[in-house]
Inverse folding.
């Protein structure tokens, strides 16, 4: 007989003891907080110059006036986008596509030449992390002081320092969100609404959303954005090769590392140039050790270069233990000139040529952009009719959009069939950056229409912009059809 199966009353088997090798494995690795040390040097000054430049542009552009209106304004309600002298419409979406293509090619080009320049110097995450980190250091102190403050029990001094830092961070975030919304709502109107506490629901949402994103990313996430959220760190390896300029540690010169006094001769001690001070790790915003080689977390900010050069100066050693180089250049001992010449390799030249060609095409396309647009719509209620003297008449609606910021006058004509003419050949006037729908009656004489009865024929509308003196200055041609009834 078969043995009876387990009963509900049977007790479960006893759990194994801890001594039997059972251990708990966490699926999430705890990350220690990074306390980046302040650093000064040539690359740090360049990074701060980019911080100032990008923020002056971002915060200043909405307040700049141009032709009596905001210089850069994306008016979604009116479906007009003002960029200095340019007035763009949704139909000009192709230019946004061109900018995205240029941005991607530019990223490929500069990455192939010099690695992650964008990440290290101009990326918004880097820029705002620098700003928030500066505020943190001014209020809480440098690395050691911040570490002691966080380990200390809460008291009045700690509460005031933490509270002041949070207040400044929040204000920077809100001002950033306000400026961002100011690109879509006229910023003077937005400022008046803010003073009167009269924000609309969408303005309130986007100011808070963008402000909170700035506060969270730059204040708390910081290196987590670069390491886990930004896709560029993941696919950069596809754009890197052994001749890409990266931040490198000269292992042949630095190893074996070890501490020593300034007066000691490293050769007698059997040591390399690296004194194992770990300052290159302490200043890294992503917390990596550059001495372990190229890592995807490295954003190319060159803080480790500045601090290592300072240590080399104090020790009396030559600079460049940590430096910008290439993998081939480091392995073969290339000079700086050799590395710069190697940057002009076929891959870079191809990227550069494509970038120049597309940039030139984009600039020419914008420069030759038509100052007005025309859409032709047939009147569906009356396809064709016979009017006085047996003439055949078709009615159309012409939507004329003036893309300039001055009043413009246009003359409408038609061609394509002998004897075809516009019944009301008047000059149409359209206001600055405005649009006007104009009904147009196109007629064909009875004699010309007789042999064309019962057919549809292609025609074209010719719309000319009339400059001063009533002389044509630009022409737009739009195609349509003319119906001749039986």
């Amino acid at each position: 007989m078969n043995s009876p199966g387990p009963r509900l009353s049977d007790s479960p088997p006893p759990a194994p003891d801890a001594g039997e090798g059972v251990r708990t494995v966490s699926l999430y690795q705890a990350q220690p907080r990074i306390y980046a040390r302040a650093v000064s040097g040539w690359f740090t000054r360049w990074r701060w110059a980019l911080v100032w430049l990008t923020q002056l542009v971002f915060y200043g552009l909405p307040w700049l006036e141009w032709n009596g209106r905001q210089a850069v304004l994306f008016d979604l309600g009116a479906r007009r986008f003002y960029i200095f002298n340019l007035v763009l419409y949704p139909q000009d979406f192709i230019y946004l596509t061109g900018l995205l293509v240029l941005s991607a090619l530019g990223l490929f080009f500069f990455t192939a030449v010099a690695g992650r320049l964008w990440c290290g110097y101009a990326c918004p995450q880097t820029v705002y992390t620098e700003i928030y980190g500066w505020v943190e250091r001014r209020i809480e102190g440098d690395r050691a002081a911040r570490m002691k403050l966080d380990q200390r029990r809460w008291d009045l001094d700690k509460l005031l320092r933490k509270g002041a830092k949070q207040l400044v961070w929040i204000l920077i975030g809100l001002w950033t969100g306000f400026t961002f919304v100011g690109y879509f709502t006229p910023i003077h109107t937005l400022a008046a609404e803010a003073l009167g506490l009269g924000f609309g629901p969408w303005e309130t949402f986007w100011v808070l959303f963008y402000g909170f994103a700035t506060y969270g990313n730059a204040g708390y996430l910081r290196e987590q954005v670069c390491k886990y959220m930004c896709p560029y760190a993941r696919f950069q390896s596809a754009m890197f090769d052994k001749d890409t300029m990266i931040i490198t540690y000269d292992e042949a010169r630095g190893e074996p590392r070890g501490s020593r006094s300034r007066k000691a001769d490293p050769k007698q001690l059997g040591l390399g140039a690296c004194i194992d001070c770990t300052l290159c790790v302490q200043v890294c915003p992503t917390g990596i050790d550059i001495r372990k080689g190229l890592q995807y977390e490295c954003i190319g900010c060159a803080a480790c270069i500045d601090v290592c050069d300072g240590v080399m100066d104090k020790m009396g050693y030559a600079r460049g233990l940590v430096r910008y180089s290439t993998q081939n250049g480091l392995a073969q001992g290339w000079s700086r000139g050799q590395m710069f010449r190697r940057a002009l390799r076929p891959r870079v030249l191809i990227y550069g040529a494509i970038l120049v060609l597309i940039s030139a095409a984009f600039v020419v396309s914008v420069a030759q952009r038509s100052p007005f647009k025309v859409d032709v719509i047939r009147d569906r209620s009356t396809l064709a009719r016979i009017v006085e003297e047996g003439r055949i008449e078709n009615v159309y609606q012409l939507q004329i959009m003036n893309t300039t910021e001055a009043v413009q006058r246009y003359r409408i004509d038609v061609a394509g069939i002998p004897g075809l003419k516009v019944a009301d050949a008047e000059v149409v006037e359209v206001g600055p950056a405005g649009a006007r729908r104009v009904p147009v009656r196109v007629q064909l004489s009875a004699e010309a229409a007789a042999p064309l009865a019962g057919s549809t024929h292609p025609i074209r509308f010719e719309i000319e912009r009339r400059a001063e003196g009533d002389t044509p200055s630009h022409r737009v041609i739009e195609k349509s059809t003319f119906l001749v009834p039986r």
The first strand starts at residue 65 and ends at 66. The radius of gyration is 34 Å.
